[in-house]
Hints:
Helix content: under 10%
Order of helices and strands: EEEEEEEEEEEEEEHEEEEEEEEE
Radius of gyration: 18 Å
Mean pLDDT: 90
Oligomer: single chain
CATH topology: Tachylectin-2, Chain A
Number of helices: 1
Distance between the termini: 32 Å
Number of strands: 23
Structural class: mainly beta
Strand order of the largest sheet: 1-16-17-18-19
Low-confidence stretches: 6-39
Largest sheet: 5 strands, antiparallel
Amino acid sequence: MSEQVPRSPFSRRSLLRAGGGLAATTALLGTGAVFAAPASAAVPASKRFDLTQPSYDEFRSKILHESHHVMQGFAFDNQNVRIFIVNARNGGTGDDLCVTQVNFSGEIQGSMHLNNAGHGVSIGVEPVGTDSYIWMECDSDGPTSTGRGTALARFKFVNGGTPSVKKFLTGSKTITCATDPINKRIAVRRNEGGKMFYSVYPLASAAAGNFSSPLAHFAQPALSTVPVTFQGYTIYGQYLYTLDGEGHADPADINSYVTCIDMNSGTVKSRALTRAGKSLVFREPEGLGIYRSLAGETRLYMGFGSRSSMENINRYANLFYKNVLID
């Protein structure tokens, strides 16, 4: 679970427009990186997912390396056909995280720990040859389950190894990221002056430590007329997708929504209720990710945590996807 998104929409003046610069909160600039707002949003046009279309199962009820905590964010290494899912460590402080690699049947292929990292709402993956580099929050602001990252970490995934971490945007507040594996971009979400903002970069530029020329920088728009519980995000092409909602024991109480946001305007394009996995026990929305199948089908994946019963301490990972793109 993540923060509550406020009821009131952000001022349109806080959204980047062509020909009008944003008074960027450069005071939040992390050491070792350069940040500046662009003169205009410049994400190339693309199709978007039709959020009203049905969802399909990838896998259900799979236990991760850390069995007692619900899944959080996840991401795909499209090049090497891998899935990485993050959750809290059993017996940890709450901000100690574990990244588990699974295959497309949900079976564990390896794991890696990053302590005092944060919450894991969203992560990214960057393929480098046959290696997978994980992008995620680090340097939590507190050793509890409410701790959130203050920098981005990039490290090579090595099963059972100790991460060799390179840090970016240090000194940030509530920072996370997500990657577009098809267009090789990374979105960074962080608190800037009390509001959540997204910045989008070419992944290669970010890996080189260059955050000086974002393709887009915009405030998170209001997702609903009432406060919602933010549960993850991802990007594909021109659009950013968010997931919000809460866990419920009764399927009749499902309130999980996927929202599509145009990154070139910072405005909501569409929003729809999803009932994917509605029969799961205590189904809780947890993360979004993008993958293109070997057959060339582009998919928007949604993650949900679940239990076998309300009394069982184990938590399970579940993935579902949508696959219809529209103009």
